[in-house]
Specification:
single chain; about 210 residues; alpha/beta; Rossmann fold; 4-stranded parallel beta sheet; 8 helices
């Protein structure tokens, strides 16, 4: 899949998805996010996304099974190439959505300040109803609204965490998207289903109801 022209540049609002190798979970999440954003929030063209891996080999292609799984969602991931997570990517992102709790440990090691804007995708989705109860579901209309809403969402997550703690329940496996590497297409489809549902909740939390 060709990389968007803006990728690597300073985006207005940038969301970073991370996993381990950047060859299945995080690029699948990024691709599904872009699809849902374009379909449900087409006016938010200032929201950009990218993905990276904590142990990625730069330039590796997506696994063939993840490409097959994304084909079922009408997404072409055949052109994806892995990118290594760096401190710069973490500094430039406005929100970091990890696929599992272990990735937050890497964030803490390479860019500790980024933990204040990092959680797991699944955890954000699980907290979506609470966020909507506190902030409402009025749709975000512009960049100023979106940035304010993002700050408010992070504050909701921080409010239930101890000072300086992770913005996720580190004891709960429910915070994680399982790693399908080496598994069957059926497992990859299950992961894609989990990502799809998690993104639905996360998007509502971040941007309110679709217009």
């Amino acid at each position: 899949m060709p990389q968007p022209a803006w990728q690597g540049q300073n985006a207005v609002i940038e969301i970073l998805f991370i996993c381990t190798g950047n060859i299945c979970r995080s690029p699948m999440a990024e691709s599904l996010f872009q699809s849902k954003l374009a379909r449900d929030y087409p006016h938010l063209d200032f929201v950009h996304s990218l993905s990276a891996g904590t142990s990625a080999v730069e330039g590796n292609p997506a696994t063939s099974t993840s490409v097959q799984a994304m084909d079922l969602w009408g997404r072409d991931m055949s052109g994806h190439r892995a990118s290594v997570l760096t401190s710069r990517k973490l500094r430039e992102a406005d929100l970091v959505l990890a696929m599992a709790r272990e990735h937050l440990l890497t964030i803490e090691r390479i860019e500790p300040a980024a933990l204040r804007k990092s959680t797991t995708l699944k955890h954000l989705s699980l907290r979506a109803e609470e966020v909507l109860e506190r902030l409402g579901d009025d749709p975000v209309l512009d960049e100023e609204d979106a940035r304010a809403r993002l700050g408010q969402v992070l504050e909701v997550l921080r409010a239930s965490a101890a000072p300086g703690a992770y913005l996720v329940d580190m004891q709960s496996q429910a915070s994680d998207i399982i790693d399908p590497i080496g598994s069957s297409l059926r497992v990859y489809i299950g992961v894609a289903d989990d990502l799809d549902a998690s993104l639905q909740g996360a998007l509502r939390a971040l941007f309110g109801r679709p217009l």
